[in-house]
Structures are given as C-alpha cells and as structure tokens.
C-alpha cells in the first residue's frame, strides 16, 4: 500500500552487476521446526539467506515488523543481526519471543538442524554467504534492512537451494564451487526483480550509479527518525552543499528534503499496516515530534488519517490471510 520504490537501478547497471557478480563463500543448512517451535539464530559476520521450502512461520528481528514466511519466500538478513525463526501461524502469538542475544544456531554450521517435537511444519534453507560486485564490493554487507521477496513454484528456486545443500553435504570434489554457482543462480533471480519488484529493497542496488548520493539516500531510508538536514547529509557523504544538492536532484528529480518526507511517510505507512506501534510511536519513528504535524503530512500523501489507513490495511490483511492459510494447508496435505 505504500507504493513503488522511490529509486530503481537502471537496466544497464543491473546487467553490469549481474555479469560481474561472484559468490565467494556459502554455507547452508536445512532447518526444520515443529509446530510452535522457535529457533534462535546467532549473529553472523556475513549476510545470511533464508528460503522457505515449505510451511509457514515468521522471522523476528528486534524493533522490526515480523517477516512472514510462506513457501518460496526469500529473505536476506544484514550481517551482525540476531533473529528468531518461529513456526507459528499468527504474529499475535510472538510478543514474548522478540529478545535476541549472541547465542543460538549458526546458519550453515550443520547439514540439518531440527527444533521441537513432531513433524516439521516449517522447513527452510538457511545459511551465510558473501557475494561481491567487482573485486571488493560486498553487495549485501551494508544492508540497512532485510531483503524480502516472494517467488513461486515456477521459479524453481527451492530445487536450486536443495541442490546446493546436497552439494555441500556430499563433500565431493568441487562441492564448494558448485554450491556457490547454485547460490549465484538464486541471487541472479533476486536481482532480476530489481526492475519490477514493488519492495523497497531494490533501492539498495542503485549504489552503482552515484555512490555518495546512494549513501545519503541509505541514511535517510535506514534512519528516518533522525533530524536529517541538507547540511548533515552532504557532510556525511563528503560533498559540498551545492554539489550534493545538484547531484541529488539529478538522481531523484527532487530535493533531499522532499524525498525525505516521502521516505518518512512510506516508513510510517509500513508501521501502521503492521499494527505494532501506537500512532504517537509511529510519528516519532518517522521523525515527527508532533502528532498533529505528522497527521497533516500523512493525510497529504495518503489521503486519509493514520488511524483510517491502519484500519483499512488491517481489513485488507484479514481478507487475504484466510485464503493464503487454506492454500498452505492444502499444499501440506498434498
């Protein structure tokens, strides 16, 4: 409901990225959770990848909206983030599980990891990896937020991930390079979505066109509550105020402060739809000390008050949840 990404990589830059992408490291595990089980995943120095093979559940990160897992959901988590994976159907049951620490399962440390008693209701391929653009730029190391993209059975990424796990488990000659090549196929499928996905993560890869401006945008997007100014942003990326304004306007077609308001409103819309914070808390998270000022700005962008937007988002989620859960149950029964 919050709209398309504000900034999207060009087709030419995406082709360049995909041509030179190199997966230099990968470790994968199959993680199987019984109903209502929870798996604490330890912080990792590298980015981690989680692909839902079957079942349903959530990934929980501190201070972020729970990430819904359904078959063929692909999630990439930034380095240094602990999380909890849970095999529960509804996020209302998760309120007491959102505290993480340094202990827990290390993704990719074993061939298979099981949690809970009984048949698994959630099975994922989980692991850590490093993917470079050119000789040194780790594409995912500086992620400010998780990447979440949903594929379907026709993309066949579940088969590719299963094949990669099998190669690592077999420990045959060439298993490492083979699994790296297979993970590269998964990442290439993800990068193709940069041109069509409506999710905000696609903005991450616009770093190829103008890195200082991309860093300023990443600062806005990852910390919308901060009191950003043109002066603070230009200083943070090492540009003069005039050069920053000119290059920013050339990249986005609008001023930094105009774009910042759009970023904050999109962030607020996501928080309202998640229904986890009060409206006053959403306003603060979007950089507004005054609820009335926040409400006026939000109404200008979305045509409704925050409370009305939240109610509409909840009605939409409720109407779509039942068919999705029925489909998951039918798939499991089959």
TrEMBL record:
Region of interest (Disordered), residue spans: 308-334
Keyword terms of this UniProt record: DNA-binding, Transcription, Transcription regulation
Biased composition regions of type Low complexity, renumbered to the chain: 314-324
InterPro entries recorded: AraC_lig (IPR032783), AraC_XylS_family_regulators (IPR050204), Homeodomain-like_sf (IPR009057), HTH_AraC (IPR018060), RmlC-like_jellyroll (IPR014710), RmlC_Cupin_sf (IPR011051), Tscrpt_reg_AraC-type_HTH (IPR020449)
Gene3D superfamilies the UniProt entry points to: Homeodomain-like, Jelly Rolls
MF terms (GO), sorted A to Z: DNA-binding transcription factor activity; sequence-specific DNA binding
Pfam families: Cupin_6, HTH_18
Residues covered by the HTH araC/xylS-type domain: 214-312
Keyword Transcription regulation annotated: yes
Keyword Ribosomal protein: no
PANTHER family found in the cross-reference section: ARAC FAMILY TRANSCRIPTIONAL REGULATOR (PTHR46796:SF7), HTH-TYPE TRANSCRIPTIONAL ACTIVATOR RHAS-RELATED (PTHR46796)
Protein name: AraC family transcriptional regulator
Organism (species): Mesorhizobium hawassense
């Amino acid at each position: 409901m919050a709209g398309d990404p504000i900034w999207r990589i060009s087709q030419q830059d995406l082709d360049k990225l995909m041509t030179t992408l190199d997966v230099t490291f990968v470790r994968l595990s199959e993680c199987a959770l019984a109903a209502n089980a929870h798996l604490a995943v330890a912080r990792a120095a590298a980015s981690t990848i989680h692909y839902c093979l079957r079942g349903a559940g959530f990934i929980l990160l501190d201070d972020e909206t729970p990430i819904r897992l359904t078959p063929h959901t692909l999630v990439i988590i930034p380095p240094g983030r602990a999380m909890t994976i849970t095999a529960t159907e509804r996020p209302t049951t998760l309120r007491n599980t959102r505290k993480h620490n340094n202990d827990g399962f290390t993704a990719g440390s074993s061939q298979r990891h099981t949690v809970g008693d009984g048949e698994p209701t959630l099975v994922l391929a989980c692991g850590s990896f490093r993917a470079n653009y050119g000789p040194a730029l780790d594409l995912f190391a500086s992620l400010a937020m998780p990447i979440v993209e949903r594929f379907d059975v026709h993309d066949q990424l579940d088969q590719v991930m299963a094949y990669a796990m099998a190669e690592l488990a077999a420990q045959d000659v060439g298993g490492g390079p083979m699994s790296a090549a297979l993970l590269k196929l998964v990442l290439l499928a993800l990068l193709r979505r940069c041109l069509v996905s409506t999710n905000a993560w696609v903005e991450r890869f616009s770093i190829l066109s103008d890195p200082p401006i991309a860093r300023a945008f990443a600062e806005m997007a990852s910390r919308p509550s901060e009191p950003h100014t043109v002066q603070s942003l230009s200083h943070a990326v090492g540009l003069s105020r005039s050069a920053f304004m000119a290059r920013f306007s050339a990249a986005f077609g609008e001023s930094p402060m105009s774009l910042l308001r759009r970023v904050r409103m999109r962030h607020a819309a996501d928080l309202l739809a998640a229904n986890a914070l009060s409206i006053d808390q959403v306003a603060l998270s979007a950089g507004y000390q005054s609820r009335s000022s926040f409400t006026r700005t939000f109404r200008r962008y979305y045509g409704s008050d925050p409370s009305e937007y939240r109610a509409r988002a909840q009605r939409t989620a409720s109407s779509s949840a039942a068919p999705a859960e029925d489909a998951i149950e039918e798939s499991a029964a089959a």
